[in-house]
Design goal:
elongated, 113 residues, 4-stranded antiparallel sheet, 11 strands, 0% helix, 7-stranded mixed sheet, mainly beta
Length: 113
């Protein structure tokens, strides 16, 4: 079993910053922790950033994804946050052998004055 543990979400004012973290634990052989997605109420889940790096619409230049390979942990540094960044942010991983995907439980990011 694979668990993805996210942390770092919260409430921040417009223009502020947050740093999200995601670590894999359990049976992690072959597990590649690879990116972040987000889902706002009433909207589909969309890519925010993936190791490569690749960035979703509207975040490049403000968000930076990074990875500590030794810890199998990824980070998302989010700067200049806007109200439209408000969403639940999910960590994503894939088993490179079976292609099975794993998701974290999600962490809420709220950008509001």
């Amino acid at each position: 079993q694979v668990q993805l543990e996210e942390s770092g979400g919260g409430l921040v004012q417009p223009g502020g910053s947050l740093r999200l973290s995601c670590s894999a634990s359990g049976s992690i052989d072959g597990i590649n922790v690879r990116g972040w997605y987000r889902q706002a109420p009433g909207k589909q889940r969309t890519l925010v950033a993936a190791i490569g790096p690749f960035y979703g619409d509207g975040v490049e230049g403000r968000f930076t994804i990074s990875k500590d390979v030794a810890k199998n942990t990824i980070y998302l540094q989010m700067n200049s946050l806007k109200p439209e960044d408000t969403a639940v942010y999910y960590c994503n991983a894939k088993d490179v052998r079976t292609y099975k995907e794993y998701w974290g439980q999600g962490t809420q990011v709220t950008v509001s004055a």
